[in-house]
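Quick start: read one record
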Amino acid sequence: MSLLTLEQLLSQLISKSACLTAIAVACLHPVALFAGSPQASQAPRADGQEMAVGASLSNFSLPGTDGKLHRLAEYSGSRILAIVFESNDCPVSQLYEDRIRKLAEDFRGKGVTLIAVNPNDPKVLRFSEQAYSDVGEDLEDMKVHAAEHRITWPYLSDSAQTLTSNLKPTATPEIFLFDSERKLRYRGRIDDNLETSEAKSNDARVALDALLAGQAPLAVTTPVAGCAIDWPSQESAAQAELAQVEAQPVTLSLAQKEDLKKLRNNPTGKLLLVNFWATWCGPCVTEFGNLQQTFRIFHERGLEFTMVSVNDPEEKASVLDFMKTEHATSRNLIFGESDVYGMEAAFDPGMEGPVPATILLDPHGEVLYQQIGDLDVPKIRQAILQNLPDPNEYPGEQAYWSAIASGSGSK
């Protein structure tokens, strides 16, 4: 995969009528971003100089996915401390996980300790930035991610961005190498290509080998390609996006048996998520917001979503009122007849009857995933991710998520 040069990035920004401020910031920080990155429109932090090679690492105290608090002194016995900034939602970070794992394993016995730090502020995530992940970016999400993706190296949360503000990474993933005196000796990319088989320059490995040999790396900085950091200053953009979604009209239509038959065949030509629910169903109401959030996150990548209320048709007004309070911008239907079992059989004769019931259909109407009862949000999002087409910018994403869903990935 080719990387965007600074000139190409500026050209794209200009062609999309990006604001002059964003262009100016990009000029100050020439970070290479992969085309189409979910965060490519977010400029790196510009409130100070990047950490210079030779600068000392300050103390830190950060919570990890292992439930412990990790401090700099904990790693005093290591000849080299490698800090990798990575995140849950960045597809570039995801596709580098196996390489990060290999670095940790290969150099552990040589006196190198590798830790990962999530630098993102979880409050400022926009929907498009979450469209490549099954979870968000807070510590609890990180714990889920670490367990599902078998991250065995320390994975620390810096949501307050204390360490991040000190080191000032420009993207995820980015690696910093500190010597025994905890002075910075290398910062930059892990290697030069998103696809492992196409990598020609294994920069981090070369730098580690040099440092272990008591030599300075030939290259002490290298350009970074990945997803930009989510800083607190971007919260207003996330709030504006949410306000725009919540301003959309909410509608509810009566569905007849023929409508449900058509729905089962998936007339959208896209990935279709269908949820059967009712206002009198406690679990349905509890998971309602998560389903709407899932739709907002993946809609731009091609997911369609239809909610079907099994309430009595006479309850349409109260059902619509509830959906308005939840800003349900999906396609919304309610049974047009009181014959619940007959209506469900019209959708699928094999439908079991209880709600909530969630079904994921491929563009041809084949069932890809179904869940009766309480929704497992990461699982349904994993099913979506493994069935969305591979984006041109991130070859291997679909295979990555298929491996995760099958339990064979990130070993």
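Residues 249-375 form a domain with the Glutaredoxin fold (CATH 3.40.30.10).
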